[in-house]
Amino acid sequence: MSEAVLRLLQLASPALPVGGFGYSEGLEFLVQTGRLADVAAAGEWLEAELQRGCLAIEAAALRPLRNALRQWRTAAAEGGPARDEALAAVRRWDGWLLAQREAPELRAQFRQMGGSLLRLLQDLGFPLPERLDLAWPAAWAWAGLALDLEPLAVVEGYLYAWTAGQISAAVRLVPLGPTEGQRLQLRLAPLLARRARELLATEPASLHSGGVGASLAQLGHGELYSRLFRS
Asked: In this structure, is residue 230 part of a structural domain?
């Protein structure tokens, strides 16, 4: 196994201390309102988000984010217009992706997880060129660049980490048995690989989100009487 694969596994591991286990991204609302009650429904929900949700836009944006971050890293030491332009591009992509998410809880999640990942990378010896707050997708793109991962692997890891997190939440909420959860993860693997290849070659601005139900579920989560998850 190559060193790059091991770095990708570390980044996508549920043991990564960024707090992802505390979020369901609307899944808890769906379970409590009876709209997601078994493994078939969970699979359909995950497939829909992979195909038509905001997740796809974020994954497609990892490549241009990586390019902007690389340019910023190169120009930061020299300063001047090149540094300012590259930094502006990073900020623009980061803000644009954060604006795709309607629910305040989810925006807070992205800020928290992004900040946690950047602090972890700094402690591991991979700081940003300058101090900057970035949300989760941009922080993930920086992690891929800093760890010298191939662009396709960065997109695959992003999709995998999201899917694994959602399945972990579903195992606790639906509930699914752990074997059913693993069976679902295995079944989604071909779709994850195909979508990663497609999204790597897609201009993110050409995509739109059809995840209206996901957005409503995320907004509804804040009104639940009792909650296990933060989103």
From this structure: no
